[in-house]
Amino acid sequence: MSARVYALVNQKGGVGKTTTAVNLSAYLAQWGYRVLLVDLDPQANATSSLGVEKFHVQQGTYEALIGAAPVGTLLLRNPKWNLHLLPASPHLAGAEVELVGELARETKLRRALQPVLERFDYIFIDCPPSLGLLTLNGLVAATGGVIIPVQAEYLALEGLSLLMQTLRRVQSALEPNLDIRGVVITMYDGRTRLANDVVREIRDFFGDKVFRTLIPRSVRLAEAPSHGLPISVYAPRSLGGRAYAMLARELLEGDGLSAPPVRPGQPSLAAQNR
């Protein structure tokens, strides 16, 4: 079976996009799924979050986009986590300029990934916080759909209309089958009225596209990247660790795949959202 390819997109920075990409990838890999995380952001935060020094990356997403090397030769694998990474480096910023004059420049990533689709069950693409050419490549490659992390704050809602316009343009001009796989509400603090108001507005707008799992504000989630570890390794029993485990289960169940059972003492999806 060919991989499900999801792009994680939001033009607003700081909404938990990379955190979601890294931790979904890590949990699914831990549970035995074949997972590739593609770092499409020149800031290379997904790369460094997994303990890879971005300034030491010799080859990665940049070389894949410009056709300098096949993706299969560029992958890094962490055997402990059973997770593959197509790393990024600051050189990736040059791809925005270099690809402008190329034919079918928006399809470079999709074509680069084609030879490895059968090797993986899931491919997650961490897109940059912009709506430029790199993000367009991520959207066109996302045959499984788009996952949109949204911070549970009022200003996060303002950028959603621009993102939806971009998705519609990509659908009409480049990839008619592009769809929203789900919206993830991040940095949720249930003690505040504002957060609950934002959650209600997002659910009113997107309906059943919104994942039931709410990702809370969490010190452990913020600490994990500095240690080069996903939350599943750094602090799996923390609130953030348990939330991402639930989100990963919810994704699998929505895709019709099996997820590990909830262990005694762990909250279920229903329990979290009562």
What's the arrangement of secondary structure elements?
Layout: E1 4-8, H1 17-30, E2 35-39, H2 45-49, H3 61-66, E3 76-78, E4 83-86, H4 93-98, H5 108-113, E5 122-126, H6 133-141, E6 145-151, H7 154-158, H8 160-173, E7 180-188, H9 193-206, E8 210-216, H10 219-223, H11 231-234, H12 239-254, H13 269-272
Parallel strand pairs: 1-5, 1-6, 2-4, 2-5, 6-7, 7-8
Antiparallel strand pairs: 3-4
Helix pairs in contact: 1-12
Provide structural commentary.
The chain is of the alpha/beta class and 274 residues long. The chain has one domain (4-272): P-loop containing nucleotide triphosphate hydrolases (Rossmann fold). It is 39% helix and 16% strand. The chain has 13 helices and 8 strands. The chain has helices at 17-30, 45-49, 61-66, 93-98, 108-113, 133-141, 154-158, 160-173, 193-206, 219-223, 231-234, 239-254, 269-272; strands spanning 4-8, 35-39, 76-78, 83-86, 122-126, 145-151, 180-188, 210-216. It has an 8-stranded mixed beta sheet, with helices on both faces. β7 (180-188), α9 and β8 (210-216) form a beta-alpha-beta unit. α1 (17-30) crosses α12. The longest helix is centred in the C-terminal third of the chain and has 16 residues, at 239-254.
| Anisotropy-based shape | globular
Helix content: 25-40%
Specify the CATH homologous superfamily.
P-loop containing nucleotide triphosphate hydrolases
Low-confidence parts lasting 5 or more residues at pLDDT below 50?
Answer: 267-274
Number of helices: 13
Radius of gyration: 18 Å
> Would you tell me which CATH topology applies?
Rossmann fold
Cα-to-Cα separation, first versus last residue: 36 Å
What's the pLDDT, averaged over the residues? Answer: 90
In total, how many beta strands?
8
Strand percent estimate = 15-25%
Largest sheet: 8 strands, mixed
**SSE pattern:** EHEHHEEHHEHEHHEHEHHHH
**SS content category:** alpha/beta
